[in-house]
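Changelog note: in this version the structure field was regenerated for every chain. One regenerated record is shown below for reference.
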Amino acid sequence: MRYIILFLIVVSHSVCFGQLTKVKRVVDGDTFVTESGERVRLIGINAPEMKEFYGIEAKEHLKDLIEGKDVELTSDHKSKDKDRYSRLLRYVVLNDGDINEQMIRDGYAYALLKFRFDKPGAYSEAETEAKEQQLGMWKYTEAERAEPQNIPINTPITNITQIDLYESRYVIGGLIIMFIILGINYKLKG
């Protein structure tokens, strides 16, 4: 009975208060990897991609806010647990502040209103305020924002793609195991 109560306390805490984790690496302006290797996509926002205008700046801003820090991940009642790329969909909380909303409020992301989530009003308002104050990408004209991003030639490939070398190890390991099994099978038949 004691273990059941302890289990319920732990589960209710993670559901009500979220999951604490350390941010290992920021991938772009709306995605990061935790220390445990889990990929997380910030709910309700869309930052420019790395090859798009202000993509590098959005990544750097998110990196300054959360990389190497302990953050709280909370789920949303209206959206799915994971997106089509198997990334966790979460709100990121640091020092009681909503990082997702801060990315919008600082002008480094848009409010992503085409999907259902709990905070569309607050995020839409944050985007309107960032535009009015000409913060982040909003200090540039629409024509300037439409121009492709000039990525320096010496930019490491990890800065312009979402390839996670940690995950590629699994692919390579799987291929090696497959070839070993095929070799054993061939040896047994021959």
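Spot check on this record: DSSP finds seven helices and eight strands in the chain. The two ends are 58 Å apart (CA to CA).
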